[in-house]
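Re: beginner question about structure tokens

> Can someone show what the tokenized structure looks like for a real chain? I only ever see the sequence side.

Sure, here's an example I had lying around. Input first:
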Amino acid sequence: MFTDVEIVGIHHVLKKGLSEIEELLNYGTGIKKSILNSNPELDIFLRRLERYLEKSSVRLITYWSEEYPEALREIPDPPVYLFIKGNFEILNREMFAVVGTRKLTPYGKTVTVQITKEICRHFVIVSGMAYGIDSVAHETALLENCPTVAVLGCGVDVVYPKSNLNLYKRIVENGCVLSEYLPWEPPKKYTFVQRNRIISGLSTGILVTEAGLDSGALITARFALEQGRDVFAVPGDIMRESSKGTNYLIKNGAFPVTDPEDIMKYYGFKSHKKLVELNEAEKEVYNALSEPRTAEEISETVAKSLTEILVTLTVLELKGVVLRRDDGTYQRIV
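And the corresponding structure tokens:
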């Protein structure tokens, strides 16, 4: 009875919620005429939105559209409508969220890349296109030639942060961006919290790779638990602020992930991990890292010069099996 644009207007201008709109949809054409004719503000809004959508590549779907993601219908507070830019058809594929802190460390970046590479073989990666872990998750999926979905805390025609313009364009070309806000709406503090329920709602599970206790990623994890989604977290250094959030999640029941295979096994997939070949010198240094150590300590352990050790450590880092931590020590990551 009501068009998708009219549903947006009724929700946005008249402040009607999902259940109230559902009731209106069950009435005859008389109620439609009454609503539209008695609200000049609504009429102005509808004309503006119709003109905007006609001139743009933005697609609108509502809760009652066939294309609406089934996973979102299950959550307690589904968005009444979504504006989408890009390939909306991937929204009914199985998705997995990878989220975390904006203030990522080299450790956070490394584990996000390593685990996302494997997850994106089986799921569409969902995140929020924020600085830090979100951007790394999107970038990794794109580099693996896999689609990715960004759920924005602003309109789909607003790039935030602006420095992510190139990433935004690539996501639209190889996946989609979506939002429950009007296409031209700027971000506000509360909109990022609200959009987090959509990130988790779209997903089969979520992984928090690095996050402090004040990170918005923990809000996403809370939404995920309320929605009955699986929550995974990567443990980190107990002395590091950026790992306190993930360690907290694990202490409170999240599944710990120390290898991509942990998630693959949980969902019954086989890991595609490539075997890394090491020569004898590399094996010797790798085996010396039974615990985090400095280059000097490794040099003493294997009785080789510091220069030789530093060269070997660089090779091991490039092969993705060793990570240099913020405190200058090295640790294994596979």
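Each token stands for a local structural state, so reading them left to right follows the chain. The CA atoms of residues 3 and 263 lie 42 Å apart.
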